Amino acid sequence: MFHLYGAKAPWPFLQGLIRDNRPVSFFEETGLPYERISLDPMKGENRSDEYTKLNRFQKVPTLEHDGFVLTQSAAILHYLASSTGKLYPTEAKEQAKHLEWMFFAMTDVEPHSVQIAALIPMTDEADLEHAKWMVKRAEKIISRALNYLEVELAGKQFLMGDTFYAADILLGCCLYPIRAHQLVAERPNIRTLLGRYVDRPAFQRMLKINGT
User: Which of 25, 42, 80, 104 could form a disulfide with 206, with the two C-beta atoms 3.0–4.6 Å apart?
Assistant: First the structure.
């Protein structure tokens, strides 16, 4: 049994964006048995002594599996896929390419997509103008990554062709915050790919679970 610690969304607009969305989606896709333990950050449950022993950073997600503890959502997703062989390529070169896409999602997409989606709603009035500037900057930076992705997706169903892998889950979750943004709307390959993610039954189940 896998034990996954997630969190209740402190604000409604964060539901679906809490980072246990990646492993939850994986479990829902594969049917592997798991238990999701929901922490309430508004009550300080992520700062309890018990949880801090598992994750000294006091963030989510945290995975516990037979005494092995792992944090960071992309690392958890990689471990789940590589250790079970589910949603994971079999050839070494394909595995390396899969990892490349995971790094792309976490470094070139997510930092900027989350900022675009969540920075202004979480900013006090006194800092609002600076937050707006940061969002504009994030939009400019992510455009380069999305231009690259748009070209790479030409003729493909998913990131690596016709097969759905764990990296597709990660990228889908990283793009989800900007699903309604013009950045996605004006790029048909990305828009189509994200639509395939969101329409998956497992993704829809994740949205109901994540952040609650």
Answer: 25
